[in-house]
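Hello,

Following up on my earlier ticket. Below are the two sequence lines again, exactly as submitted.
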Amino acid sequence: MNDVMTQNMLVFAGLLFSAGFVGFLTRRSLILMFLSLEMMLAGVSINLIAFARHYGNFQGQVLAIMVLTIAACEAAIALALVVSLYRKKATLDIKAWDELSETLVPKEVEAPISMSTTEQVFPSLTPSGLDPLQDPVPSEFMANLKVGETIGNPVVNEKKAEVSNNA
Amino acid sequence: MWNTGLWKMSLFAQTNAESLASRVEGTWAWTMVIPIILGAAGYLLVQEGIVRHKFMLGLGLVSLAASAVFTALFLPPTLDAYIVFLFCIVATGGGVGFLTAREPVYAALGFATAVLSTCGILFMQSAMFVAAATMIVYAGATIIIFLFVLMFAQQTDLRVYDIKLTNPCLAGAIGTVMMITITYCVTHDGSFPLRKVDSSRLMSEALLPEELQSEEAKIEFSRQKLQSAETGPGIVPQTTAGLGRSLYTDYLIAVELAGTVLLVATIGAIALATKPTAEAGS
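Thanks for your patience. The regenerated structure is below:
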């Protein structure tokens, strides 16, 4: 013999909890993971309220208020943590903090994926750097070159070589 | 009229005669697995379809709707049950939106939908104060703060970590197993005890004494209680005044501790969120 309404509430609370759990497992943005946690807490609150009604006293409601308080604390602390984590790496990705996990776990290779509404595809241009006709080449640029590597337009370089040979 | 009206406020007073009479046998049946699996399939289809193809998205939504219709078959035919079921549907829809939406702002809105309908459900469970407080704390404060942080992180465009989910199939399978387990544990016969008198917290009690089990006696008793407005064991757990009385008598220390925890959390949040100074870095 069960109270049907309480039963339904408990099933729904389980649904909300499972949804939050799935969200916590699948989502990768730090903020959305914390929102999933809040959703799980909402499911727990429903549970408590259902039992408060079932037993006809206020104990469940009082406990739900306590859960609410702790949820508020958790949100404040979590967001402060998210902000300070974002300051360190400028990303909300949880994968950016993979180094905190075990080192033996092999690293997952990220396949490139793109789905965007605002991203525009621009034509690719040749990378610009030094003006090939610039003479003399700045010394700090020369210092970064490997041995045997030339810079600038090859035609101009040949002409320069000819001029120096003639001289 | 007032006599009957008190106990027949069927929308809010869940302890009325109808709902007492509507207790049925524990109703676990293996067909309950069907809507759960349909819902899980719907979630997977929607979360893939939102990135890939509209057809998959539609299929997932159809699957979710079928799951809802299946669930409705298990409901008791009362108005209460259907109103609560509507709230549940909206909340589940918000939850699925939260799980699948790729734009973080839309996900936060889905979460707000889910929490607001949850507040409706709490209201239907005659927990008025908790419903209002949840509405203010979650839908007001939490969502706003989360949106602030989202804006702070400046998501002008979708990032990889918004689009890609970590292993949704495995997570969906775990969620399905969890859901089936919960449903079985909750609905099988004798899963939770019937109502009983708990006298450990005197002020929290809202049950009727033993000698007032008949309907007429209940009505008379509650009418007297309401008119005299005495303290002592309450009648129905639906007055905010009773909740406050319970909070500040039986749970006074817990309330104080909760306030302390809030204060500590505030200090901690400020300490964590302030920019580290040069002195702290060295």
